[in-house]
Amino acid sequence: MACAHHPEVETGLERCERCAGTFCADCFVVLRDRAYCAACKIELVRDLRSGIVPGALALATTGRRLLGVWLDGFVTTLAAYAVLIPLMIPLIALSGPGAREPGGLQIALTLLMYPVLLGIPLVYEALMLKRSGQTLGKMAVGVKVVTPEGLQISRGQAWARAAIKVILGSCLGIDYLPALFTRERTCFHDMIARTRVIRLHP
After folding, report:
1. How many domains is the chain partitioned into structurally?
2. Helices 104-132 & 62-94, crossing angle to 10 degrees?
């Protein structure tokens, strides 16, 4: 493991408390006994000047968040099958005994599967988060997506968060690994979109 800014440096490293990046002594500062990279230091100082206390949000647990993700996955999978099954019926009929080489319709239907399987979770997540900061899964487990200041997220944050989550969702859960190590339990999509997940009730 090396410094994010100086790959040649592999000793004396610290992990940023906010973004979980790894940095050498020249790239981080210690504030309130915690290490922060330059970018996160600026955000932290801005928060402190605004009267925001880091860590004051009632953050949702990783387990609760994962349960919400599983519930949302169940919902979007049902929706995807509801769209795909009618489209697959002609494909199955054309692929029956005696079928020749795959025709244009078969190829088109096959290629249509991928936009459906990726597009439905993307649109579902982005639209619901923009509306209320919650998906059906998040409502069920009592969590909500907000800004680091605890405010409603913007349309851009909602779409960026949903897109990053869909893209990284197929990478063996790598998107959620940082939540196990960062103080604010942020996943990669939280870090990039600048969001936090809070609990609404115990």
Report:
1. 2
2. 150
